[in-house]
Amino acid sequence: MQNREQILAMLTKILVDEFEIDADDITMEASLYQDLDLDSIDAVDLVIKLQQLTGKKIQPEEFKAVRTVEDVVLAIEGLVKQ
User: Fold this and answer.
1) Number of C-beta neighbours around residue 75 at 10 A
2) Sign of the dihedral defined by the CA atoms of residues 2, 26, 70, 37, in that order
3) How many Cβ atoms sit within 10 Å of the Cβ of residue 6?
4) Is the dihedral of CA 57, 61, 62, 67 positive or negative?
5) Rounded Cα gap, residues 65 and 14, in angstroms
6) Residue whose C-alpha is closest to residue 42's, from 7, 75, 73, 66
7) What pLDDT, in 10s, does the model give residues 23-78?
């Protein structure tokens, strides 16, 4: 079972490695689109990476409402608990 800190660490690693985002910019409050400069294509890539890491199918609708790093962490947390 992964806790929020582990999920945040996993997400941070993906954002730094795959999207070249500065780790210092990644906070729970950070907006994926405004603060981290992700676009919709990046968001799709992020979902694919998260699916690979969690082994869970992520429905695109579940990520439509995601705006912040915390939203992603909570969505992943919900998935891994299922």
Assistant:
1) 17
2) negative
3) 14
4) positive
5) 20
6) 66
7) 999 999 999 999 999 998 998 899 889 888 888 888 777 777 889 999 999 988 88
Alpha carbon distance 21, 2 (integer Å)? 23
The count of residues in the chain is 82
Whether residue 1 has pLDDT greater than 60: no
Nearest C-alpha neighbor of 15 from the set 50, 57, 63, 56? 50
* pTM for the whole structure: 0.86
**How many of the other CB atoms lie within 10 Å of CB of 14?**
19
* Owner of token pair 């992520």: 58
Tokens of 52: 């690979």
Query: Which residues are marked as active site?
Result: 39
